[in-house]
Each structure stands twice: as structure tokens, then as C-alpha cells.
């Protein structure tokens, strides 16, 4: 909105978008706190028995230890998917945070996807970007990324980085870090996603459909936006990951 690429009504959606999310996070913290320390005497004894039984479930252990935040439900998102269309996987739906795996551009060292996005609105797809998708990204100053799988023998889009006139940048997932949401995207050319600057997935498009920006763009701004800046071919490499404990 500050750059003129979104209307003022985007700011009005902030409270409706973030208030339910904040409440969910507070409730989760309260529940975890009660499970650890809540109640005295009989309540404490019951809690110990219940927790001892619960933690035997791998699913419950993962839920307790998970730091994932709940997805956003309202705001600048593409809302309910049409029932006739296939549903995207849970980690690749509007309102969810896009994963932040290691990726490579060209023959550069692996970097986190955040380094490529650099706080910009981006479009990610596995298919060869056509002129319509490239034109959409140019009009709205969106970073266009073609994502590929690390599987040997698959076509890699990295060669397009050598062409200064290319409208998109090829990125390849690292082969040692499974990432469920992006693995599915890289293997499915029928999906295209828009990612907001806060790394929230804003929209998902299927087939040859163009993704739609779920916020108003002033007409005068849309006509005057310059062509998008492509991500650097070789961003700073990611720091080594800490050893597994």
C-alpha cells in the first residue's frame, strides 16, 4: 500500500485478518501452560496421568512441540476454493506460511527461499511461464519464480537464469531437505501460487488459470508500474545448519 501497488482498503483488512490469529495463539499458549503447571492437588494428579497417556501418541507429541502458527482465515487472501476444483495440499493453501527451504539458483550455493523472495510479492510455479503469466507479473511488479524438483533426470529451469531477457528465475529445491508443500508444487505444473511479502500464501490457481491478486490495485498504478526486478542469480549462501541433536 505504501508503494501504491494496493488500495487503502488493504489496511482495513488487517484487524479482521490478525485478531483471530492472535486469539488462537494466545489460547494455544494458555493450554500448554495449563498442561505444564495448571491446577493443584487432584488436578495436578489427573494432569500427570492424562499427559503420561497422551505423550505416547506421536501425533500428540508433534502437536505439542510444533511451533507452526495457525493459518489466516480472512483478509488479503483468495477465499474459499471452488468445490469443483482440486484442493491444494494443507501446507499450500491461502493463509498458510510458505515453507523456507534451501534452494539453488543456477550453479550458486544453496540459499533459503527467503533470500530469493526478499520481502516481495512473488509468484511460484513449476510450469514454463507463459506470456500471460509473465505479463501479469510485469504489470504488478511480482517476482516470478519457476520451481523445480531436485530429482535426477527432471528438467531444470536453472538455464533460463543465463538469459538476461528472461521474465522469470529458476530455483531448484535442495535434495536433502524434504519440504511437503513445495515438493508438491515442484511436482505439479498445474499449480501456481502468489506469496505475500510476509510469506503468507495469498492465492492458488489451477491449470492454466492466472492467479488473481486478492487485493485491489489502483488502475493508474497498474498502468504505471515498471517491469519487475529479477532476484539476484547468486544471493548470499545460507549459513550452515546446526547439527541435529
| CATH fold topology of the largest domain | Glutaredoxin
The neighbouring-strand order within the major sheet is 2-1-5-4-3-6-7
How much beta, percentage-wise? 5-15%
Overall outline = globular
Structural class, judged by helices and strands? alpha/beta
Helix fraction bin: 25-40%
Instruction: Report the major sheet.
Output: 7 strands, mixed
Briefly, what CATH class of the largest domain?
Alpha Beta
What is the β-strand count?
Answer: 7
Query: Radius of gyration, rounded?
Result: 21 Å
Q: How many separate helices? A: 8
Number of domains: 2
End-to-end CA span: 43 Å
SSE arrangement, N to C: HHHHEEHEHEEHEEH
CATH architecture of the largest domain: 3-Layer(aba) Sandwich
Describe the structure.
This protein has 245 residues and is an alpha/beta fold. The chain folds into 2 domains: 9-65, no CATH class; 90-224, Glutaredoxin. 32% of the residues lie in helices and 13% in strands. The longest helix is centred in the first third of the chain and has 24 residues, at 14-37. The termini are far apart.
Précis, in short:
It is built from 8 helices and 7 strands; from the N terminus they run H-H-H-H-E-E-H-E-H-E-E-H-E-E-H. By secondary structure, it is α/β, with parallel strands linked by helices. It has 2 domains: 9-65, no CATH class; 90-224, Glutaredoxin (3-Layer(aba) Sandwich), CATH 3.40.30.
Amino acid at each position: 500500500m505504501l508503494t501504491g501497488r494496493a488500495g487503502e482498503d488493504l489496511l482495513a483488512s488487517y484487524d479482521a485478518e490478525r485478531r483471530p490469529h492472535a486469539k488462537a495463539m494466545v489460547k494455544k499458549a494458555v493450554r500448554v501452560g495449563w498442561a505444564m503447571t495448571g491446577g493443584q492437588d487432584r488436578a495436578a494428579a489427573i494432569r500427570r496421568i492424562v499427559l503420561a497417556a497422551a505423550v505416547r501418541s506421536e501425533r500428540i507429541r508433534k502437536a505439542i512441540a510444533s511451533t507452526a502458527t495457525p493459518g489466516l482465515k480472512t483478509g488479503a487472501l483468495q477465499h474459499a476454493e471452488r468445490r469443483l476444483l482440486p484442493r491444494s495440499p494443507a501446507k499450500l493453501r491461502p493463509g498458510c506460511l510458505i515453507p523456507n527451504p534451501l534452494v539453488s539458483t543456477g550453479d550458486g550455493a544453496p540459499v533459503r527461499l527467503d533470500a530469493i523472495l526478499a520481502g516481495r510479492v512473488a509468484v511460484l510455479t513449476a510450469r514454463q511461464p507463459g506470456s500471460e503469466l509473465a505479463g501479469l507479473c510485469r504489470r504488478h511488479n511480482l517476482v516470478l519464480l519457476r520451481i523445480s524438483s531436485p530429482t535426477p533426470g527432471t528438467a531444470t529451469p536453472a538455464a533460463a537464469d543465463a538469459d538476461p531477457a528472461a521474465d522469470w528465475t529458476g530455483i531448484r529445491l535442495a535434495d536433502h531437505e524434504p519440504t511437503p508443500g513445495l515438493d508438491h508444487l515442484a511436482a505439479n505444473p498445474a499449480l501456481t501460487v502468489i506469496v505475500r511479502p510476509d510469506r503468507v500464501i495469498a492465492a492458488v490457481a489451477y491449470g492454466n488459470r492466472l492467479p488473481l491478486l486478492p487485493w485491489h490495485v489502483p488502475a493508474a498504478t497498474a498502468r504505471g508500474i515498471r517491469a519487475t526486478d529479477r532476484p539476484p542469480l547468486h544471493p548470499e549462501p545460507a549459513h550452515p545448519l546446526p547439527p541435529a541433536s
